[in-house]
C-alpha cells in the first residue's frame, strides 16, 4: 500500500462533517458580529467619560469582543476543526510575531525618526495597567481574535471566494477593525496589515490556528515589552 508523504498530514485540509462544510451560515455570523462590534465601537466614545475608568475599560473589551465571542459560540462546529497543534507551531508563531513587530518598529523609525520606548506611569504600575498592557492583549486577544478572524472569517471566506482572496480580505478587515478601535496612524495600519497577512498565511498553509494564536501573543507581547515603564 502506498504511504502518504510525511508532511501531508500537517497541511491537508481537515475532514469535513455535514456541519463544518457549511461556510455561508458561518460567514453570516462573522459578518453580523463584525457589524455589531464596529457600531458599538463607534458609539462608545460618546459615553465612555460618563462612567468610571474601571467600567469604561470593562465596557471597551465587552463591546469589542462580546459580539465575536457570541459568533464563535454559535459556529464552534465550523472553526474548531482548526484547533490541532504541532510543535512547529511554536516556531512559526514566534516568527510571525517577531517579523511583524520588527516591521512596525522600522516603519515608525522611518516616519518619525524615533524608536518606540517605554511609557511614563505616574504612581507606579497598577493592576489595571497590567491588565490592559499584558493580560488583555497577550492572553485574551489571541484566544478570541484568532479563532474569529483566521478560523471563522477566513475559514468561511476560503470556501466562498477562494483561499487567497479570503486571506487578503480577512487581513484588511482585521486591520480596519483595529484601526477603528485603536486610532489611525500609518505605523499602526502597516504593522497590523503585515501581521494579519502573515498570520493568515500560516493558517492557510497549516490549516491550524495555533501558529496565529502564538504569533498574536508574541506580536502583542513584544509591544508590551517595548512600552513597559522600566
From TrEMBL:
Keyword Membrane listed: yes
Protein name: CAAX prenyl protease 2/Lysostaphin resistance protein A-like domain-containing protein
Domain CAAX prenyl protease 2/Lysostaphin resistance protein A-like intervals: 131-221
One Pfam entry name: Rce1-like
Organism encoding this protein: Gryllotalpicola koreensis
Transmembrane segments: 26-47, 59-78, 90-111, 120-144, 164-197, 209-228
Top-rank taxon: Bacteria
UniProt keyword terms in alphabetical order: Membrane, Transmembrane, Transmembrane helix
InterPro entries, per database record: CAAX_protease, Rce1/LyrA-like_dom
